[in-house]
Each structure stands twice: as C-alpha cells, then as structure tokens.
Amino acid sequence: MKLICANFKMNLLKNDIINYLNTINEKIPKENVVFFPNELYISYFKDKNYLVGSQNIAHLEHGSLTGETSVLELKEFGISYTIIGHSERREFFNDNKYISKKVELALKNNIKIVLCVGETFEEYNKNQTFEVIKKELNEALSNNINYLNNTNLIIAYEPIWAIGTSKIPTNECIENTISFIKDYLKTEFNLDIKVLYGGSVNNQNIATLEMIKNIDGYLVGGASLDANNFLTLIDNIKN
Ligand code: PEP
C-alpha cells in the first residue's frame, strides 16, 4: 500500500483545520495517509484517529532549547511519524548539524522517520544527485545503524528545485534515483526501505508519476492544503 504524507508546513489556521477535517469527513484512509500539520493542530487529527506526524523534532529530549519541541512532548500528543531533514529545515534552521541526533531520538522513541534527501538545481545540472544523496544518507544513518530496521525509516526523495515550483524531474530520473537509494541502503546498511517522491506532486502530474514502478508513495506539500484537492489526489493514487 502506498504511503501518502501531507506536509502542511506553516499553513492553515485553526478554523481552516476544523473545516479541513469536516470536508475530508472520514473519506481519507487511516492506514496509509499521514498528516503533518503545524504541531499546534496535531491533536485535532489524532482525535479523529488519523495517522499524524510532526514536521520536526528537537535534537534533545528535554532541556534549554527555547522554541523547540521534544519528541517526548510530541509523542504525548500521539505522533507516530516525524519528518527529519526537510530542505527548508536544512536551509533555514541549520538542521544538517543535528540530523543524526534527531534520527537517533526518533528511533529510540519508536517514531517512524520520513527522512528527506535531495539535490539543488545546480547539483542536478552537474550530475551530482547520487553523490549528494549518499552523503545525506551517511550523515543521518551511520551512527544509528543499530536501531534501524526496514519499517522505522522511510526515505523521501525530494529534489530541492522541485519543491513548490511545479517543476519535476522526468519519470526516468525519479525511477533511477529511487533505485539508487534502495540499492545503496541495501548494500551499505542491509535495509529494504520504502522510498517516496516529493516535490510539486499535484492532480495534474499524478497520473504520470503513477507510471513509475518503484515508487512507494508521495510526500505532498501544496496539493494537500485544500481538502477537496487532496481527496482527488488520493483517489488518483493506486495502491
Ligand atoms: C515539501 O515541501 O515536502 C513538498 C513536497 O512541497 P510541494 O508538494 O509543495 O512541492
């Protein structure tokens, strides 16, 4: 069954969330769709028994980290997933430095990780995609190998230049990169891991993306923000 992750980022206010939940009105599957709302609204989704995750966790379990939220606190509100390494966090919050520690804390607390990896447009043009991803995987996983298994880690291949831009790589390119990630995780870490694609997935391109054979699901940003739009997207994804 394909895994579909809806990353709301810092969008939708309280009333929008209430309306969203009324619109989806139990029409969204509860076993393979995970919502990542702003953490203030996690409980709204959890109360309706949807799968829910956080967009981030702090790199410490507790302590003096003003403005951050610990995996322990998020767990109390019912998250079962967390995104780690989103390019926006890497760019604006210096997350490259903390990814290994965040991965460790999520794994120790039985929270599934959606680890984002992907290249900039410049790196893509220089054919450095595999090199960049290899480095990101090593940085996140090398110190955590003892805790990893085939189900507690999911990779989201997100070319940075495709996020929020309506541009996406060709199917061939996505398929090759997903194969590379799966092969690398198998040979280096002995893991069989699900790999999602993320970056401008929408109702216009989903039929094309669905032709990719090795894709295990999607990480969706903008196209998940409108409930009706997201319901249509889910209907267009074959399991
Ligand atoms: C994202 O930010 O993870 C994402 C996939 O965004 P969008 O779908 O809007 O490109």
Structural domains: how many: 1
Largest pleated sheet? 8 strands, parallel, barrel
The CATH superfamily is identified as Aldolase class I
Radius of gyration: 17 Å
Secondary structure: helix percent: 25-40%
Please state the second-level CATH architecture: Alpha-Beta Barrel
Structural class: alpha/beta
CATH topological fold name: TIM Barrel
Strand content: 15-25%
Envelope shape: globular
Hetero ligands: phosphoenolpyruvate
Largest sheet strand order: 1-2-3-4-5-6-7-8
Q: State the low-pLDDT regions, or none.
A: none
In the CATH scheme, the class would be: Alpha Beta
Give the termini separation.
Answer: 5 Å
Number of helices: 10
Characterization of this structure:
Helix 2 (42-47) links the parallel strand 2 (33-36) and strand 3. The chain is globular and about 45 Å long. The model has no long low-confidence stretch (mean pLDDT 97). The chain has 239 residues and is an alpha/beta fold. It starts with a strand and ends with a helix. It contains ten helices and eight strands. Helices cover 37% and strands 15% of the residues. The chain has an eight-stranded parallel β-barrel with strand order 1-2-3-4-5-6-7-8. The protein has helices at 14-24, 42-47, 71-76, 87-92, 99-108, 121-125, 129-141, 171-189, 206-209, 227-235, and strands at 3-7, 33-36, 51-54, 81-84, 112-117, 153-157, 194-198, 217-220. It has a single domain (3-235), classed as Alpha-Beta Barrel (TIM Barrel). It binds phosphoenolpyruvate. The site of phosphoenolpyruvate has 13 residues, from strand 8.
